[in-house]
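Issue: ligand-bound run for zinc ion - logging full I/O for the record.

Environment: standard queue, default settings, no custom constraints.

Inputs:
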Amino acid sequence: MVLKNVTQVSYCIDVATSSVSANPDEIRELVKQGLTFWRNEFSRVERGMGAGQFTLGNQNFEERPCSGSDVDLRFQFGYETLTPAQISYLVDPTKYIGITVRTNDDYLVNLHGKGFIFIASDIGEKSYHGGKDTTLISMAWKRKRLLEYVILHELGHVFGVPHSGSGLMSETFLEQMLSVSLADAFEKTPIESILTIDEKLDLCGMGTGSNFAMQWLGVPATHNCLRLSLNKVNGQWELTSRKDDEPSSAKRLGAFFVGTPELSDFKVRPAVVLQLMGNLTVFTPQETKFRSFMFGPMLAEGGFKANFVISPGNSKPAYLRVSPGSLLIQAVNGLKIENIFSYSSPISLLLLRDPTPTIHPTNIRKEEPLNESTRK
Ligand SMILES: [Zn+2]
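Outputs:
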């Protein structure tokens, strides 16, 4: 985890080209994109209502060559990039798909972490699970989206995000992503925000909504897609509908004006917690509020009374519930409350679709997130 006291982070990328199917240039590009992804994630949350007590991810990351330089963060793609010391630390590196390890002991004094990210080979007998597990796809890193996901997941640990929830940072994410039954679906899944809900949400086809919902929202009968997008200036969610594959058919249906959060239906929890030790000098006692921990970016989840404004003077009440992976809008239908717009992050739906992954007990991947609970 790197914090406000660190402005510059150096990293290098080492690729074992004989046992990794991805192109090193592509890897380099995806690492850059991954760093940008997390920086955007944290900055979006820091603007929001549940901002934490310390800033995260606003450092300048600079790539250097791996040979001969002492960098903060080493990306090591493939078994052959590991040193004998790393191999003995990991015991059996083929048990991992990816792992992030912090290596410096003075971290708790200066909060400037050093370490490495190891992403397993995907070709040959030194690949993840020795290449013998037939429940996992082979040559996964040839698929750009899967490579992107493994980099994003491990970078999350670098920034101190532990395993949690049913999305990108789920404990079983990597294993499920490479499973034969889900890999194709993961490859088609767009990258989404995980600390907040995305600002543009699309629902198409079967999942669009009930007859009541379509009527309530005023969706033309020939339209089968809905798009809800956040207007960042005034905080309202604009709704449009269209025919699939026909962008010119788009029609504005109205906008949800969202009120203040309902106190009975609102909670925040920290995405990152920083444990503080006695000899830490980075934060003053006032900044830490004399506690032994601080909260990083917060995940907010809550319900809001909303008004769906179709045109000036023509509006109706609704209830909007938003969490990092979902957005639900409900309205009253006679004596019942019905869902009129229900969006869940495709990743969480995928991860839940496979409730009993076929993991062999002897092959279970162990992965230690880089956070305070795993310090050596
Ligand atoms: Zn992990």
